[in-house]
Design brief:
alpha/beta; single chain; 19 strands; seven-stranded mixed beta sheet; binds zinc ion; globular
Length: 446
Amino acid sequence: MKQVELLVLGGTLVSMDKQRRVIQDAGVAVAGGRIVAVGTRREIASQYSAAQTVEANGKLIVPGLINGHTHIPMTLFRGLADDLDLQEWLTKYIFPAEAKNVSEEFVRAGTRLGLAEMIRGGTTTYCDMYYFEDAIADETAKAGVRGVLGETVIDFPVADNKTNAEAMAYVERFVKHWQGNDLIIPAIAPHAPYSVSEEHLKAARAFSDRTGAPIVMHIAETKREVDDSLKAKGASPIDYLERIGFLSNRLIAAHVVWPSAGEIGILKRAGVGVVHNPQSNMKLADGVAPVPKMMQEGLRVGLGTDGAASNNDLSMWEEMDTAAKLHKVFSGDPKVMSAKEAFELATIRGAQALHLENEIGSIETGKRADLVIVERDSFNQIPLYNVYSDLVYATKANDVETVIINGRIVMRNRRLLTLNEAEIKASAQKFRDQVARSLGTLGTQP
Ligand SMILES: [Zn+2]
């Protein structure tokens, strides 16, 4: 018998490996944060023993979900302002609320709230862009969650850095500090092509080339962004970014709602990862990203919730369900995205979008042990005919029972083991009152 650290035994395993194997009465052996063997319960239990065993009989074992685009501390702005278009929402509510409230303490509290929500919903990796990203990394590592975390670079003074020089110095320290960590991949996050100058974008690209750090960015989110870019630069955002040599296989582009016909090919050739945010795009009436076409053309494309102020939750279950249905209604073709493809967006394709497909996104020997156990006896889930249908169209975040990240159990039987629920709720309320006071009459919409 080989000794390992953790065994998961029983249940139906949805591997998302190349053959998309689904194994009944499965077993997984975990050691050193990685999956060392996957098979049937009999195969695994006869070869491996461990001090710790998680019983998954009657449940589903799936790869940890990957939330490809968030602004995690914005959980504290959840419901602050809704039902507006992007520019009005940003300039009248979000930017003023951020200017008056975002501090390191605020970011830490919002991050813990977001982490609790994500673990509860089976998300094991997320890709973020915000301020004080070093504090976000610290909270994320402490909670045992995996993150590609990008410190924002933007051409106006923000909470943590007042100038581009300060932001670049912050990113330098931040990336140096976290590179090599088992859970945290530090990144640089130029906000968008319209909010960061060409010179500063080129510096961000050079930084990424020198350090290997990924670049996280919003691209072509609205029609207006494309129109403004055509007027100001004589090129659409993606065209412009290609022209200045910005695109690379370390870039993770959120949204890409409005690529022109040829631009999907440009992104594919450059190896850019794209993250689709259907609920945020719908709520802000941005439009519908051509995701089925991107998938057909073999683009790296994943799925994200965006910040909780524009969604308003961080549930990847809702996001998968929405993605599949949005593309059906938009194309008039119910076959345009299947439940299985929607589940791929939240797992193996999501890993590709973050350029991490060799590490996460499926349950396979050698990969990081990011595993989620989903109960399947809720009224909304029974009976079971097809696992992908059940996962995408019927399962809710509340059905997640146990979460393992990098081989460590961070939630067991719905109890969070790395975060303090009472403290998280109390500080969310405290900051809610502070934000409302800071905005005066604008504090809450009627
Ligand atoms: Zn965003």
